[in-house]
Recover the amino acids of this structure.
């Protein structure tokens, strides 16, 4: 057990060490590029990377996020440095850090939960597109970016793509070889199973191969040799102690300058928003799908920015590029983040000369493949299939980030998402359902959970469309909040508009504070007046429609409390249903009926006896029901037991059910010799089918016996006062199949339409 744990820990440490090394190799030129793009000293980017890796990594509880200088802040940083000067700018970074610490302590990280998933996916895809477009020049050896190596400076997006237009006349063959080999290696590494499972990350191999090829190309001359601006470049100190010359203190003399505080607030807000969104995005690509506490991350970023400002570094945030490389390189925990920060420090202090031998085209190959994973064409296809409400904000976020900057792009994506939400609320703030009750059609308006003032116009339009003399039900049972403007509309409609138009307004589920009380004005049960106006065909249609609603999950809204009170004085059922005691086919539910609508007689196997006949006669002759329905069902236990006793007289239930024999004997009359022979040789599935056939025969036999044994019911059927109909309920689908008795005196075509 102990050895297994040690092996797992060793594997995790090895994965984190390799992952941290790969992130370091990618992060180093990015730190320099972002610093140059921000008009800050190059070493300020390296210092920020060290702080983001070590300090933020130690405090953060995210296992995947990697922090450092962010491309999304370059425009803000450049503007503030130009306005304040570098020392005063460092003070604003310290202030921004303290603001972020306060936000973390106030648990403001919950704000990230309000960002739509489409915007987050758009952020990832946009970063991928930018990576590809920005690194293509470096892949081909065009390393004369006016903003610095591997820069992401925005919103000058024209410079983002300017190098692409110059590639035909300014490429480096040696860099192309290294870049193309690097991309090919990474693609092969991801597709060859044994390479992918070898434990050696492809990006590390690409860097090593790039250095080797670079050294091999040197003897071929300057046109092939990788040198100068085609290599990574970090400042070189004279000695270890000489590295301290790169550290700068903030300008504390500017502490009374209000512009410094305004800059601090701006940096804090932009950095916090970028961090929260990047954190959300990184968690989505984490192979282990772990959750990073956003408030803790804000606190960690705040501490990091305080320290970065105190030593001369530019602001740090969670960075999606480094984080993506971190996860794709196989890192397991936040030790990889910390290790990458330590390597930045070691490289800057001890071995800057060695690091400066890495070709930029090798790193560009890593970033291009990472970018393709983030902006995979399959992602665009998936978002398109999710519909315009997701695809449009996603696409807008991608385009806006690519052509402006990260913050503006996210805000545009959020604005479009909110626009679609508002548009959707204006078009579909409510759900309209026409319910066909016994007393007539009722328009049920189901209000949403939150009904804002934006929904007022749509609700008013729906209410005005209710025809004169109609019934409308306002259903607020799932509503938590209703805006006062909407309440005013409802009050006005119920008290003035509806009475003037002869519209009956029923209310359900409104909170007492709204001064609207539950009331149901339409008839939702079988009253004496309604029953007297109904024919057997209409009753059968009611039963058929009810079963359709039951199968579709569209049961009518019923006020059972009111029905109980209404039926206290008397009941007027429209049908009598003789069914089995099976728990899966309660008649009131499968026909979607209310209290007082039917008489329900239940007995195992839906067989008859003198007592059952008495109940049926009372329901039809005395209580006035218009339909007598005998309903069997599939997979019936009583029928199965009856058949089993024919095949094997000794049944497990024989001893425990001493009064079951009379029911079994009645059902067995539905089994003829031919059917019994089929049952004896049938397999399990075929036996179920044959038993269901017996159940249907039993229903027909019961209808015959009812008419033979009850002269009262026989006479009512002959006179057309009632219809006797058989039915089979499918316990699997919930569907009821009806079939009339031959004696039923009704038009065959009309009856067929009613029961089909």
């Amino acid at each position: 057990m102990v050895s297994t744990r040690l092996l797992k820990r060793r594997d995790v440490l090895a994965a984190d060490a390799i992952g941290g090394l790969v992130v370091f190799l990618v992060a180093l030129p990015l730190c320099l590029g972002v610093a140059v793009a921000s008009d800050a000293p190059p070493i300020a980017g390296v210092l920020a990377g060290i702080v983001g890796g070590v300090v933020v990594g130690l405090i953060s509880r995210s296992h995947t996020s990697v922090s450092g200088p962010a491309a999304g802040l370059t425009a803000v940083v450049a503007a503030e440095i130009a306005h304040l000067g570098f020392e005063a700018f460092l003070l604003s970074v310290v202030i921004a850090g303290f603001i972020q610490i306060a936000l973390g302590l106030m648990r403001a990280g919950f704000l990230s939960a309000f960002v739509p998933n489409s915007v987050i996916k758009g952020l990832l895809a946009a970063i991928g597109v930018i990576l590809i477009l920005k690194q293509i020049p470096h892949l081909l050896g065009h390393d004369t970016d006016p903003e610095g190596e591997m820069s992401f400076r925005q919103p000058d997006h024209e410079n983002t793509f300017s190098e692409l237009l110059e590639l035909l006349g300014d490429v480096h063959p040696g860099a192309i070889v290294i870049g193309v080999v690097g991309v090919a290696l990474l693609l092969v590494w991801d597709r060859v199973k044994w390479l992918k499972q070898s434990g050696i990350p492809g990006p590390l191999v690409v860097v090593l191969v790039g250095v080797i090829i670079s050294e091999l190309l040197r003897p071929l001359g300057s046109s092939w040799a990788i040198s100068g601006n085609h290599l990574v470049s970090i400042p070189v100190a004279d000695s270890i102690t000489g590295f301290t010359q790169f550290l700068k203190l903030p300008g504390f003399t500017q502490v009374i300058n209000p512009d410094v505080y305004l800059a601090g607030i701006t940096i804090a807000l932009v950095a916090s928003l970028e961090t929260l969104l990047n954190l959300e995005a990184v968690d989505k690509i984490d192979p282990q799908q772990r959750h990073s506490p956003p408030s803790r991350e804000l606190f960690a970023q705040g501490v990091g920015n305080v320290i970065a400002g105190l030593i001369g570094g530019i602001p740090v945030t969670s960075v999606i590029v480094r984080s993506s490389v971190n996860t794709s390189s196989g890192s397991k925990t936040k030790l990889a983040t910390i290790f990458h920060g330590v390597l930045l420090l070691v490289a800057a202090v001890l071995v800057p000369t060695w690091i400066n031998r890495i070709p930029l085209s090798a790193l560009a190959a890593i970033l291009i493949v990472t970018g393709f994973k983030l902006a995979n064409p399959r992602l665009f296809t998936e978002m398109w299939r999710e519909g315009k409400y997701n695809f449009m904000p996603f696409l807008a976020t991608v385009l806006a980030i690519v052509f402006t900057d990260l913050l503006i792009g996210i805000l545009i994506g959020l604005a479009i998402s909110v626009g679609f939400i508002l548009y959707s609320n204006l078009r579909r703030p409510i759900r309209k359902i026409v319910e066909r009750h016994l007393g007539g059609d009722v328009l049920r308006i189901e209000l949403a959970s939150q009904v804002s003032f934006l929904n007022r116009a749509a609700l008013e339009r729906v209410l005005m469309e209710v025809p004169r003399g109609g019934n409308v039900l306002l259903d607020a049972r799932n509503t938590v909040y209703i805006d006062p403007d909407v309440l005013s509309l409802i009050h006005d409609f119920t008290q003035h508009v509806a009475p003037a138009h002869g519209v009956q307004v029923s209310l359900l589920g409104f909170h007492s504070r709204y001064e609207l009380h539950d009331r149901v004005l339409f008839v939702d049960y079988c009253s004496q007046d309604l029953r007297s106006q109904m024919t057997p065909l209409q009753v059968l249609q009611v039963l058929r429609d009810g079963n359709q609603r039951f199968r579709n999950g569209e049961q009518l809204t019923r006020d059972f409390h009111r029905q109980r009170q209404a039926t206290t004085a008397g009941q007027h059922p429209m049908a009598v249903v003789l069914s089995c005691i099976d728990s899966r086919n309660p008649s009131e539910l499968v026909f979607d009926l209310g209290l007082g609508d039917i008489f329900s007689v239940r007995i195992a196997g839906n067989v008859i006896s003198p007592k059952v006949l008495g109940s049926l006669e009372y329901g039809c002759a005395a209580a006035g029901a218009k339909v007598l329905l005998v309903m069997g069902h599939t997979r019936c236990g009583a029928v199965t037991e009856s058949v089993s006793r024919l095949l094997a007289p000794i049944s497990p239930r024989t001893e425990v059910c001493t009064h079951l024999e009379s029911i079994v004997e009645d059902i067995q009359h539905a089994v003829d010799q031919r059917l019994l022979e089929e049952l004896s040789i049938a397999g399990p599935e075929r036996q179920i089918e044959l038993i269901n056939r017996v159940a249907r025969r039993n229903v027909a036999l019961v209808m015959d016996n009812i008419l033979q044994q009850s002269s009262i019911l026989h006479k009512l059927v002959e006179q057309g006062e009632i219809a006797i109909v058989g039915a089979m309920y499918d316990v699997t689908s919930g569907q009821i199949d009806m079939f009339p008795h031959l004696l039923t005196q009704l038009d065959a075509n009309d009856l067929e339409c009613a029961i089909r």
Remarks:
- Residues 535 and 626 are 7 Å apart (CA to CA).
- Residues 429-514 form a domain with the Transcription Regulator spoIIAA fold (CATH 3.30.750.24).
- The longest strand covers residues 430-437.
- The radius of gyration is 39 Å.
